[in-house]
């Protein structure tokens, strides 16, 4: 992480506040956040829709700024990507999440996968595989308990040879791979058969509209069928109601995640969830 100059405090004087844009202040804060230990991770359960078993936990970062309060990742991850700060931040998340999962396993909880978001910029780093491998080694987590949620962007698809090679190396280590936010953004169906992935994650925009938009319902149906034909599992995010869950169960969706089961919660709160059964 690049250090700020000695007089960076000047940006916080009232006069300068008017001049320096909000974005610049955010960037200055972001550069210091790792060293100041301001990030925390919340965890959200991923559940098997048939058995109700907890099968995974997604790690979601939050920024707790001493003055600005809690900042949602939607408000700083894009800037972190733009500035390259996502590289050290992403490394920190992976390390913390793997360590936490190992800690839960050491406590005797049922082993689950920890799912970590990898932004496209991070995925395209030439040392990604090495970094992940090192992290597993230092934390002692078995690779089969790690899942990487990949974001597919145009630049990844355009360099698909490199992407495929990276994915294969991660797969060979025993790591699970999923495609995040499926159905939004840059979507190309052809890569699905060439990319060595395990799971498609249906974006919550579709889950939300299952009962309000017939086209979204039919898209969800189609994505699930297509995924199964390609031997991929499907997880739906943003499940908030029993009706949505039942729709997904009927369509043979494999896994679900959302407020219906649990909001993202702290590591301590997660400890009680390990003892829970999600479906009667
Ligand atoms: P995402 O990966 O698509 O994560 C799902 C988002 O939906 C999370 O928002 C989660 O809290 C929220 N969510 C979960 N269940 C429900 C539900 O039932 N209803 C509704 N309305 N929302 C639900 P969050 O935590 O604010 O994260 C936003 C985005 O920030 C994530 O979207 C992800 O793209 C990014 N992000 C979060 N943590 C990381 C990280 O460690 N690394 C990277 N690269 N990106 C991250
Ligand atoms: Ca995700
Ligand atoms: Ca999403
Ligand atoms: Ca995402």
TrEMBL record:
Where the record annotates domain EAL, the positions are: 23-278
* Protein's name according to its UniProt entry: Diguanylate cyclase
